[in-house]
Amino acid sequence: MIITGELAGQTRQDLGDLISTTNPSSLAEPELRKLYLPVLPIVGYAPANGFIIGAGVAPAILLDSQRHTRLSHALANVQLTSRQQVNFNLRHFVYLSHDRWIFQGDWRVLFFSQPTYGLGIREFAAAFSLNALPLRQAANTDQQPMRFTYIRLYETALRQLRGSWYGGIGVSIDIHRDIEDELLDTDASPPFLTSHYLYARTQGFSPMQYQTAGLHARVVLDTRDNAINAYRGLLLDGTLRSNTTWLGSSSGSQQVNLEVRAYRRLGTHNQILAGWLWGQFLVGGKMPYLALPSIGWDTYNRSGRGYIQGRFRGESLLYFEMEYRFTLSRNGVLGGVAFLNATTVNNELAGDKLFHRFAMGYGGGLRLKVNQETRTNLCMDFGFGANGSSGIYFGIQEVF
């Protein structure tokens, strides 16, 4: 497969070319209105879920000429577990002609299990995770297992303002219900009160269910050459979210969300330095415990490699990551990454502020090119955090 444009003259292939019995295509640019549908089977095990089977798919389609319209894409998966859990996820970006309109969504329905660790950054014994879910947990880690149903409905309509600048509005709904705090025992002597229960009672929320619902306004600058796997460009994304009781929110609150992604080539087209800054800041009102910012709960659940999802949580969170990307094979099918990240969160009840403490993570991974036209990769990463925390992370598409 020969790449045209900026990579002309370099032979690049994907997994399909290697296993195909026919000659690879002479082009590596997406065809107009052709649906690309990379599929990833999901098989695994985690104590909170039991055995897991499912499938993930990363559809992509070009709705107008690539000269002026970006590639629309989505990421969806469904998981069935031996403990009768069912998890649905769908994230999508739809670019209309000339990128005049962008529709972005994050929809989830999760019948979920996950330990929490209180607010702020505190030291715990080592833990090992698979895709950010606990696989092996040392004793006395202060983990507090929970079960709950989670529904997330985020949708934004963005209109081109000028050039690569966009502005728009949308709706954000987070519903947590059927919450089971497994260690909570109010009848014991003395009673055992979990971090979630204490926070809910002191902040005026029901410990059984709550929701956060509101409208948001967004401003976006996007100069990336490809939103699935960028080789160059910049993304600036700022959101002001206002949760109101008249929309069904359990409490009024205001939150500012910020995201920055930057990509730069180093020497050759085969080396990319990428940076990611992601922050969520509670600037007014109160939000329920499970709706507070937490690592691993970004749009694609990819932050915090080296730690379990939900390991660090606070009223506000700031996360930073750098990643070095490179190819390992001449045909471009196999690649690798090395990364370093840092997380800081606050806990106002305990007087902990942002930037007072940081949790560091680092690691590396492999990339398998499953579709060259859309630049879609199959990813496997090994991450390490503080106090021996570690994990293995699988996914479709780059982490950021």
Helix/strand structural class: mainly beta
Distinct helical segment count: 2
- For the record, the CATH architecture stands as Beta Barrel
Q: What is the 3D form?
A: globular
Q: Under CATH, the topology is which?
A: Porin
Q: So, the CATH homologous superfamily? A: membrane protein fhac: a member of the omp85/tpsb transporter family
Low-pLDDT stretches: 1-10, 21-27, 135-140
Walk me through the structure.
- Residues 1-10, 21-27 and 135-140 have low confidence and may be disordered.
- It contains 2 helices and 19 strands.
- 4% of the residues lie in helices and 52% in strands.
- It has a single domain (5-396), classed as membrane protein fhac: a member of the omp85/tpsb transporter family (Porin), CATH 2.40.160.50.
- With 400 residues, the chain is mainly β.
- It has a 19-stranded mixed beta sheet that branches.
- A hairpin with a 5-residue loop joins strand 18 (376-384) and strand 19.
- The chain has helices spanning 15-19, 195-203; strands at residues 39-46, 50-57, 60-61, 72-81, 86-95, 101-116, 127-130, 133-137, 144-162, 165-181, 210-222, 233-243, 253-266, 268-285, 316-327, 334-345, 359-371, 376-384, 390-396.
- The two termini are 25 Å apart.
Question: Helices and strands in order, then pairings?
Answer:
Elements (H helix, E strand, L loop, with lengths): L14 H5 L19 E8 L3 E8 L2 E2 L10 E10 L4 E10 L5 E16 L10 E4 L2 E5 L6 E19 L2 E17 L13 H9 L6 E13 L10 E11 L9 E14 L1 E18 L30 E12 L6 E12 L13 E13 L4 E9 L5 E7 L4
Parallel strand pairs: 7-19
Antiparallel strand pairs: 1-2, 2-4, 3-4, 4-5, 5-6, 6-9, 7-8, 9-10, 10-11, 11-12, 12-13, 13-14, 14-15, 15-16, 16-17, 17-18, 18-19
